[in-house]
Structure formats: structure tokens, C-alpha cells
Design brief:
This protein has twelve helices and 18 strands.
Length: 412
């Protein structure tokens, strides 16, 4: 090789190296598309909510793209998502995060479904300095590790059912209550449990039953037998969609009377549709409800989102879908304020987010949690054979009064 050839190779190598170092902090942008990565549970025990998550993402991508896309540097871009199935498995989720970043070149991540899987992916995205906007990991421990690239649009898990204990105390004339509870052993449910423990301490209430749900979430008869024997003032259950369905089925079968039943994941499990009047009076924690008055220019309000989602997917959106759509609205807003594809500039823009979406207000605290949106509680109410969810708290947005105590099975 002559001197001129060697010089040319050296120059070209230097240019290639420079291009690689620059592109590594920008993209993944391909042509007119900003490509995001997502590992979601399309199979396994979280597959129901994984599908809600994917549908929420996809509806927002379609809506944003149809309304002009994302404007960066004077040009318009469209969102696109690369999906993988994490199989409801934490180890698989972490592997897929690595694959999306190292093999697919993804620079912008969307979260999986569940706190456990988000916990598995967050160290990977953090180590690689990849922003991740997530919508379905509520465990408060996610927001105490000092992550700088993790941003969650939903309220932390410990807030889910605290208000139910406050309501029970209020309905008991301000006096402490006896609490029975049964929880799945995943990160999310254990944080919900810690919120109940805190509420019990704050109100002077007593936890009389503190049980673990079986791993398969298919039987809680032992807990319910204790509830029948001890007659607590409130029963709290958290076991994702399958746990909610199991609870209602066995409470009805065993004719368990309890003045207040508070649960998570009622809407995701389509509780009212699956169990009809058996589910009536269940009090359910929700991140969102269609009757709330939040608005944005992409989906309008909650009722409009509900209508659009139902038309597209053939069922009413649970809050897992709504919050997933909100994550894309946050990304669009941050890209446009950063006016750049650089991951550091985008991360800094995300940290300064302060906006309202149809799903709720969004502003991130120092740990990445949303500090601007309260939880809501709805109660399943039936008229004839038709059952629907009615917001009963906070009272500012309530569409119905709480029925308390729950009528005994002999009077239903």
C-alpha cells in the first residue's frame, strides 16, 4: 500500500470513527421515523395487561403520526416501535433491553408491563444512558435508586389503596378499623401493601390478616375463611388481573360478607364483564377513569379516548392502556422541547416535563415519579344486568356516592 493509500485509509477510518461516536448519541432515527424499543408481556401471566400496554402505545403512535408527527430541527418525524415479547419474565426482559440497545441500536425506550419487569430493565437502560418513559411500573423502589433516565407517568404503587383505608375510617365515624389483606409477592403488590401498612399506622387501625396470595393466583379460600371468622372492616387484595378475578369468584362462592372490599386491577381484568353482579360494590384503585376532566389536543378528554380506543380494539380501555398512550405524548413533547435526537438533551427535556394529557397532569420528581396526578377509586355499580365503574374518590371528580357498607349476600 503506497503512502497516499495509507493516508486515505487513515482519513476514512477517522471519519468513520467520528461518525460512529456522533451517531451513538443521536438516533435511533431511520429516515422519517423515530424508532423506540419496547419489551412487553404478550405471553405469560401478565399477557392480558401486556396487550393493553401495547394497544395503548400503538393508538398513541397512530394518533401522533396522523397529526403531524414529531417536529425536530424544522422537520417532521413519525414514531415507530420495535416490540419483543418478554414472556412475563424478568430475566427475559433484561435480556431484551440489552438486545434492543446493543443489537437494534435503540436509543429511546418504552417501559414493559409491571413493576417487576421494569425493575429488571431499568438498570440496563440506566447503565447505557438510554431514556425510558414507562407507564406500568409503579413500585416506589423504582424511584429511590437515583435513576436519571427513568420517567414514569403513573402514580407510585404505595398510593393505590391508601385512600380506601381513609374512607373506611371516615365511614367508621373517624375511628380505627380492622384490616384484612392478601397480596401477591411481586414488587408492585408489595408496595401497595406498604401503603396500607402506612395508612394503618397513620389512622391507628389494626391489620388482623396479612396473607400472601399463592404464586399462581388461583386460590385464596384460606384467607377468605379467616375473613368470615374474624369479620374485619375492610378487605384489601392485590394480585393483578388474575388475582382480582379469583377474589371475586371465591368471595361470591363462599358468600363472604365484608363492609368494604378494595382491590387493584378491576378494570384491566374486565371484572364487571367477567363476573357481573358478583363484582358489584368492589372498590377499585385506578390510575385513570374516562370521566376525569383532563384534556389534550390529541385525544381530547377521557371519554373521547375511550370511544376511539373501543372503536379500534373492540373493548373499553383500562387505565393500563391510557397511561401507555400518555407515555408517547410525553416523548413527543420532550423531543420537541429538546429539538434534538441527542439522548442527553432529550433526558434533560424529560426531566423538565410539565404538561396535561387526557390521562392526567404529568410532572416528574427527582426520582422520576409523576408527582402531579392523584389516584382515583371507583366502585362497580350494577343496574339490572349492566355493570359499570363509578368514580367515588377523590370527591372532586366523583360521579357517584360510595355505597357503604357493602350489602350482605343474603340481601343482594
Amino acid at each position: 500500500m503506497n503512502k497516499i493509500s495509507k493516508l486515505l485509509v487513515t482519513i476514512l477510518s477517522a471519519i468513520a470513527l467520528a461518525f460512529t461516536s456522533v451517531s451513538s448519541s443521536f438516533a435511533k432515527v431511520e429516515g422519517e421515523y423515530i424508532v423506540l424499543g419496547a419489551a412487553v408481556s404478550l405471553t405469560g401471566k401478565y399477557s392480558t395487561n401486556g396487550k393493553h400496554t401495547q394497544n395503548g402505545y400503538n393508538l398513541a403512535v397512530e394518533r401522533i403520526n396522523s397529526k403531524g408527527g414529531v417536529k425536530v430541527g424544522g422537520k417532521s418525524y413519525k414514531f415507530e416501535i420495535i416490540y419483543y415479547d418478554d414472556e412475563s419474565n424478568s430475566k427475559r426482559a433484561a435480556q431484551l433491553a440489552e438486545r434492543l440497545i446493543k443489537q437494534d441500536g435503540i436509543k429511546y425506550m418504552l417501559g414493559p408491563y409491571s413493576s417487576g419487569l421494569t425493575k429488571a430493565m431499568a438498570p440496563v437502560t440506566e447503565e447505557n444512558k438510554i431514556p425510558m418513559v414507562e407507564a406500568n411500573g409503579a413500585s416506589r423502589s423504582l424511584f429511590t435508586k437515583g435513576y436519571k433516565y427513568l420517567f414514569a407517568v403513573l402514580s407510585p404503587a404505595n398510593q393505590y389503596l391508601e385512600v380506601a383505608i381513609d374512607l373506611a375510617v371516615e365511614k367508621n365515624g373517624g375511628k380505627p378499623v380492622n384490616i384484612a389483606m392478601a397480596f401477591e409477592q411481586d414488587a408492585f403488590s408489595q408496595d401497595v401493601r406498604l401503603g396500607i401498612v402506612d395508612a394503618a399506622k397513620r389512622t391507628g387501625s389494626k391489620i388482623t390478616i396479612d396473607d400472601k396470595l399463592p404464586k399462581e393466583l388461583n386460590d385464596m379460600a384460606a384467607t377468605l375463611a379467616k375473613v368470615k371468622a374474624t369479620k374485619p372492616d375492610v378487605l384489601v387484595v392485590s394480585g393483578h388481573s388474575k388475582g382480582a378475578l379469583t377474589a371475586i369468584r371465591q368471595i361470591a362462592e363462599m358468600k363472604v360478607d365484608v363492609p368494604m372490599l378494595a382491590m387493584t386491577h378491576c378494570d384491566a381484568s374486565k371484572l364487571a364483564k367477567q363476573h357481573g353482579k358478583k363484582s358489584e360494590y368492589a372498590l377499585c384503585a385506578a390510575q385513570w377513569h374516562k370521566t376525569l376532566s383532563y384534556k389534550d389536543k390529541f385525544f381530547g378528554n377521557g371519554k373521547k379516548y375511550d370511544k376511539d380506543f373501543t372503536k379500534e380494539y373492540g373493548y373499553a380501555p383500562p387505565y393500563q392502556a391510557a397511561e401507555s398512550s400518555a407515555a408517547l405524548l410525553v416523548y413527543k413533547d420532550a423531543f420537541e422541547r429538546a429539538n434534538s435526537f441527542d439522548t442527553e438533551k432529550l433526558r434533560n427535556a424529560l426531566a423538565k416535563t410539565e404538561m396535561q394529557t387526557f390521562y392526567g397532569n404529568i410532572k416528574f420528581g427527582s426520582g422520576g415519579q409523576n408527582t402531579a396526578k392523584p389516584m382515583v377509586l371507583f366502585q362497580v355499580r350494577c343496574k339490572g344486568d349492566t355493570c359499570e365503574n363509578k368514580v367515588v374518590a377523590p370527591t372532586k371528580w366523583a360521579s357517584a356516592k360510595l355505597v357503604h357498607p357493602v350489602p350482605s349476600w343474603s340481601k343482594r
